[in-house]
């Protein structure tokens, strides 16, 4: 029986995929695998029993990836599963920044009991007038699952779209409309665009990428949208740029003590992925990843271990070994098995950075002391007999 812990509520349509071989535990310390959305895993103790964590979503900055890898815990995310939800909110953000829809709605509430509300509206509506997005220049930093959808949608709404992503994947490039202007230097986005939206992961290399220096290169009255992570933007610099009138609006999906009351900021309570469809898509993908890993040892969409697929085990035994990516690991595995008279029918070994993963299928049962010998090899982080 596998024990699953949910650190956040996970959509039922995903949880329902767990068969009667699984049970849900309230206790993270007892779990074989955990599901999480934005809850932080950084402070949690990682038990020996924990095999996998699946992030039902894209950003994995709430999970200590290297610490997990070092304990042989495979971390997954669900690439693209919530991208449409975010894209739609970004389009809403473009519109909310262009016309004072929020101010107008709040104003109506302030006169809602006046019987002349209709006349008052006609008299006051010019205070909330704005501009259209058609024809304006939109710069997109990060053309992954979300950036590409935003680019194509904004293009269809008549915007001139500029895209920057030095690490764009082949798939993303294929999906990008040919109308998107390919930018090689992010400064060209800063200098040219009326709207700039950021869709990169939070990494050391991207932290505070939108700062005083970047903003100083931008057009006056620029609108900046951040549906990626608050720490990508130096929000103290942002507050100053809004106060100085350099930035017209800062649309962010991340309330915090700096942004929540910031004049000129439109702050949304992290709703990008909070749609029924995105929540369902993420839950289904995350649960399938965990099941495939626990039941067959196969790894798909991991962010700290290599992809690895040896199908379903048809031999007597399957052993999964999470280990360091150092020389002679396979040599040691095979010689220990050979000395024990175990014939290997199939095997696979994949590496990613400092970590590697091996699956070995054997034709006969493998004794516990042989597994103990494998476990004792220097560089082995975790070992499981799956079947
Ligand atoms: N507001 C919300 O609810 C949500 C927010 N997010 C955030 O959005 C981020 C992006 O999500 P996805 O598009 O699904 O991820 P993704 O991994 O598909 O795309 C990220 C893209 O950023 C690019 N990139 C990395 N460093 C870059 C740099 N320095 N300059 C330009 N491009 C760079 C990568 O090459 C990749 O193409 C996530 O990491 C997460 O933080 C994601 C989903 C929901
Ligand atoms: O997928 C992401 O990166 C998100 O930011 C979505 O977060 P959530 O699952 O809505 O807490």
Structure, explained:
The chain has 387 residues and is of the alpha/beta class. Helices cover 32% and strands 21% of the residues. The protein folds into three domains: 114 residues, NAD(P)-binding Rossmann-like Domain (Rossmann fold, 3-Layer(aba) Sandwich), CATH 3.40.50; 184 residues, NAD(P)-binding Rossmann-like Domain (Rossmann fold), CATH 3.40.50.720; 82 residues, Alpha-Beta Plaits. The strands form three sheets. Strands 8-7-6-9-10-11-12 form a seven-stranded parallel beta sheet, sandwiched between helices. It has a five-stranded parallel beta sheet with strand order 2-1-3-4-5. It has a four-stranded antiparallel beta sheet with strand order 14-15-13-16, covered by helices on one side. Helix 3 crosses helix 6. The relative contact order is 0.12. The model has no long low-confidence stretch (mean pLDDT 98). The site of 2-oxo-3-(phosphonooxy)propanoic acid has 10 residues, from loops. It is an enzyme of class 1 (oxidoreductase). It catalyses: (R)-2-hydroxyglutarate + NAD(+) = 2-oxoglutarate + NADH + H(+); (2R)-3-phosphoglycerate + NAD(+) = 3-phosphooxypyruvate + NADH + H(+). Belongs to the D-isomer specific 2-hydroxyacid dehydrogenase family.
């Amino acid at each position: 029986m596998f024990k699953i812990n949910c650190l956040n509520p996970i959509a039922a349509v995903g949880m329902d995929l767990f068969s009667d071989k699984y049970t849900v535990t309230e206790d993270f310390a007892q779990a074989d695998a955990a599901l999480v959305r934005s809850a932080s895993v950084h402070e949690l103790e990682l038990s020996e029993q924990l095999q996998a964590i699946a992030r039902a979503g894209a950003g994995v900055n709430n999970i200590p990836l290297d610490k997990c890898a070092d304990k042989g815990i495979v971390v997954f995310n669900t690439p693209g599963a919530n991208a449409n939800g975010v894209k739609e909110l970004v389009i809403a953000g473009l519109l909310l920044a262009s016309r004072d829809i929020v101010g107008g709605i709040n104003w109506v509430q302030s006169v809602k009991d006046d019987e002349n509300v209709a006349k008052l509206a006609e008299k006051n509506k010019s205070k909330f007038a704005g501009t259209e997005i058609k024809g304006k220049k939109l710069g997109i930093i990060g053309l992954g699952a979300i950036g590409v959808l935003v680019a194509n949608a904004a293009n269809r709404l008549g915007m001139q779209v500029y895209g920057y992503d030095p690490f764009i994947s082949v798939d993303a490039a294929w999906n990008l409309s040919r109308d998107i202007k390919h930018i090689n230097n992010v400064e060209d986005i800063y200098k040219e665009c009326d709207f700039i939206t950021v869709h990169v992961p939070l990494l050391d290399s991207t932290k505070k990428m939108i700062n005083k220096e970047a903003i100083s290169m931008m057009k006056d009255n620029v609108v900046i949208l951040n549906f990626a992570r608050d720490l990508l933007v130096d929000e103290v610099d942002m507050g100053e740029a809004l106060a100085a009138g350099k930035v017209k609006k800062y649309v962010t999906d991340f309330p915090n003590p700096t942004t929540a009351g910031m004049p000129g900021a439109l702050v949304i309570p992290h709703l990008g992925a909070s749609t029924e469809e995105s929540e369902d898509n993420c839950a289904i993908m995350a649960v399938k990843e965990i099941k495939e890993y626990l039941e067959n040892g196969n790894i798909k969409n991991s962010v700290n271990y290599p992809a690895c697929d040896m199908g379903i085990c048809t031999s007597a035994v399957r052993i999964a070994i999470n280990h360091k990516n150092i020389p002679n690991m396979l040599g040691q595995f095979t010689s220990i098995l050979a000395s024990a008279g175990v014939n290997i029918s199939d095997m696979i070994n994949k590496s990613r950075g400092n970590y590697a993963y091996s699956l070995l299928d054997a034709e006969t049962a493998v004794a516990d002391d042989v597994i103990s010998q494998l476990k004792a090899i220097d560089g082995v982080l975790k070992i499981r007999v799956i079947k």
